[in-house]
Write a structure and sequence with these properties.
- Keywords: Coiled coil.
- By secondary structure, this protein is an all-alpha fold.
- The chain is elongated.
């Protein structure tokens, strides 16, 4: 009886030692993954900062280009009436910024036949 209890205890101790080795292996793998992720995060941070600086420089360059361009946004806004200006125009008035259309058109033979035939 004592011998069987000792054998069971020895098996339990062996199982516990095996579990301990597995846990140690898993913890080492997790530490390695943690270090890899920390390295990736640092790389992404540096890349993000570099890209943000490049974008800021682009925005500054484009803003300066727009501000110094002779045909700036204000001249574009004045080129055509606003929606409010159009809405305030009386219905009987003629628009001043429309191109004239030709009022003379030659009817086709088919239309002429249908309408006058």
């Amino acid at each position: 009886m004592i011998i069987s209890v000792l054998r069971v205890m020895a098996k339990l101790i062996a199982l516990m030692n095996e579990q301990k080795r597995e846990q140690t292996r898993l913890m080492a793998a997790m530490d390695e993954q943690k270090q890899e992720q920390a390295t990736q995060i640092e790389t992404l941070k540096r890349t993000f900062i570099r890209e943000m600086e490049a974008l800021k420089a682009d925005v500054e360059r484009l803003t300066e280009k727009v501000e110094t361009h002779p045909f700036n946004a204000q001249s574009l806004l004045n080129a055509s009436p606003s929606y409010a200006d159009v809405a305030r125009t009386p219905p009987s008035s003629q628009p001043s910024n429309l191109q004239t259309l030709s009022t003379y058109t030659t009817p086709s033979a088919m239309t002429d036949t249908l309408l006058h035939g």
